[in-house]
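To: structure subgroup
Subject: Chain for Friday's discussion

All,

I'm putting the inputs and outputs inline so they're searchable in the archive.
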Amino acid sequence: MQHDFFKLRPEDEFIELVKLLKLKQLAQSGGHAKIMIQEGQVKLNGETEYRKRKKLRPGDIIELDGITIEIES
């Protein structure tokens, strides 16, 4: 399993799940990211996450297709 990190900018408190998937290039577009989430392909902290606009904060861990991304401040 590949482990990656996403560092929030100092002025940001969170990032939305759909935006993270686009920024990390795990989804080809916002629409593709939404479909991946709706189909239950994304896990947040070990639980399947269906909320597209879920706010991810430092310490959260996202899993998708054998890739783990940890949110850092």
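Points worth raising on Friday:
DSSP finds two helices and seven strands in the chain.
The first helix runs from residue 17 to 23.

D.
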